[in-house]
Amino acid sequence: MTTAETLPVEFADIVGAAARIAPVAVKTPLLNCSTLDELAGAKIFVKAEVLQRTGSFKLRGAYNRVMLLSPDERRHGVVAFSSGNHAQAVAWAARAAGASALIVMPKSAPAIKAVRTRGYGAEVELFEGDRTAMQAYARLTASERGATLIPPFDDPHIIAGQGTVGLEIADAARALGITPDVVFVPTSGGGLVGGTAIALKKTFPRTAVYAVEPVGFDDLARSLAQGARVENVPGAKSICDALLVPTPGELTFAINRRLLAGSLAIADTEAERAVAALFNHLKIVAEPGGAIGLAAVLSGAISLRGKTVVVVASGGNVDAALFANILARHPTA
Amino acid sequence: MTTAETLPVEFADIVGAAARIAPVAVKTPLLNCSTLDELAGAKIFVKAEVLQRTGSFKLRGAYNRVMLLSPDERRHGVVAFSSGNHAQAVAWAARAAGASALIVMPKSAPAIKAVRTRGYGAEVELFEGDRTAMQAYARLTASERGATLIPPFDDPHIIAGQGTVGLEIADAARALGITPDVVFVPTSGGGLVGGTAIALKKTFPRTAVYAVEPVGFDDLARSLAQGARVENVPGAKSICDALLVPTPGELTFAINRRLLAGSLAIADTEAERAVAALFNHLKIVAEPGGAIGLAAVLSGAISLRGKTVVVVASGGNVDAALFANILARHPTA
Q1: Touching check for A284 and chain B: CB below 8 Å?
Q2: Is A314 designated active site?
């Protein structure tokens, strides 16, 4: 295995982040269920980050980053761009830190995500245009305001914060006396999977950590295959609104190319079926992008027979109408 | 406050049950969310028993009772009657103990509950007739088979098992540095609320513990008012299928008349709105009967302004079609 010192984030950074976020973050449970085990032919443990404050793991990185702002930086506020989960997390963290927050979100983001971001006290600007333009606009606005940009993934403190998921998985696995053979992590920019891999491999160096991406947004899978960051072909669509980043981050790719076993691409129907399965078997609400880790298990893309598998259910911010629609179409998943 | 020794279950029984169930029971999280706090005008903490193994708190009591069977009793198997949550819990516990299980369920029980009870290896008989007849039939069958009847609530070991919910609430409250002013517990036979009150009042003697019942099934409210156990008027209907017991238990009423602050009755529409609120704000799946504790908060029946409130979300075994239907009718709850 790669030694930690060659990576942009070290295990110690994640331990530091864990201490920083402890007062506010939920130590989310690692759930399992014999019915789901039978369905999968493996022991399945689901890290329920949908239960995290603001409804996704994003609070971990955002809060870690915001708590590291200087008093002067706090006074000048923060800016973020996000499809919605990082938006809510930055809004929540900024309010906790007494800093103002401007969040730039795509017009197409789920209504629940914009409503909640405003509910946490942030100013929200809905942006029409592609993600690259939105990102440039947010950077420009931050610089005009003298505010600090809180990036969604390509930042060591963000990655360290997300990595606390891996730390908690390792702790829970030790407490349960299990050794995860395979871990599946929903992936967009790669901060969660990268941080999780660093933390987890400290205790379980032989665990295979896989990213899971939506079909059409498998930039990480193709980047891993090419050994360099490539972009998605524009124009693809996916129900996984949280996972539509065009290309891996620079820092995150430096981590992920060293530590990951691979990245799997999941079709929307499989993501929907996983949403319904998490509803039926574990009684948690996952958004499609948050459920694709389980979709990777149920798709059978990798043989898991008899293995111990951990799946991160990364977010649960889904509009009621879409969720109802998914259940109606997959009632017995 | 009443001294513990006059009650049919003592605090020590609950501590014993906690040790007995620890290897299998989930220590469910106590969730909160600022948006929900703002909606309620109070600090709301939700004990997410929907995440308990088998999808409801019932595993606690059933597993505690089944683990206390003698080897000879295990060989002769167990029988239970239940609308579905106790059914699944007894089936799961019996399988864990290597005992056979026959579960008698009403024909009207949600499909998911019968499917899962069978899935946990139990024989299921769907019974047509009222609850009193079903109970008599189950007792008769148990005696014919030489099997042990595992009653749903009126048994000291069942009550002690359910009381571990209160123990965990007290532990979590201490860890968070909060003192619950009011606790709301969905109530059918009264085992969960009674056990919870015993456990909780050991640490927080001044906390007001309320039962919450469906309108038309407020036998405990009326029994408390009369000072004696009374029955519901036959013929009432409620969406809260888990909470349709005709009258309080003998042991549970002896506890509840001493320890409870009261019992509130909740209409089906309020239960549905609470299901949708738990979906939107906390990302958990509750069945209508499991959500009525939160319904009691949102109904405004008791002034909670500025208070610290704990709500037990007791079960999440709801058919997908009904859940989708509830979300469609209350999309923004």
Answers
A1: yes
A2: yes
Same domain, A14 and A67: no
Total number of domains constituting chain B: 2
| Nearest-CB residue to B26 (from A29, A53, A285) | A29
CATH number, residue A64: 3.40.50.1100
For A48, the token pair is: 């329920």
Q: Examine the fold and report which residue of B119, B149, B179 is the final residue of a domain before the chain moves on.
A: B149
Sheet holding A208-214, edge to edge: A30-31, A43-48, A308-313, A182-186, A208-214, A262-266
Indicate if B299 belongs to the active site.
no
* Helical H segments across A22-128, by residue range: 34-40, 58-67, 71-76, 85-97, 111-119
Find the farthest-apart pair of alpha carbons in chain B and give their distance in angstroms, rounded. Answer: 56
Query: Are A42 and A80 part of one and the same domain?
Result: no
pTM of the model: 0.95
Among A26, A319, A327, the residue with its CB nearest the CB of B320 is A327
Residue B325: φ, ψ to 5°: -65, -40
Q: Are B275 and B291 in contact (CB under 8 A)?
A: yes
Contact B274, B292 (CB under 8 A): yes
Tens of pLDDT, residues A173-197: 999 999 999 999 999 999 999 999 9
A7-38 pLDDT per residue, tens: 999 999 999 999 999 999 999 999 999 999 99
Contact assessment for residue A150 and residue A89, using Cβ atoms and an 8 Å cutoff: no
Q: Tell me the C-alpha distance between A215 and A233, whole Å.
A: 11
Neighbour order of strands in the sheet with A78-81: A123-127, A101-106, A78-81, A148-149
**Cβ atoms A210, A302 nearer than 8 A:** yes
- CA–chain centroid gap for B8, Å, is 19
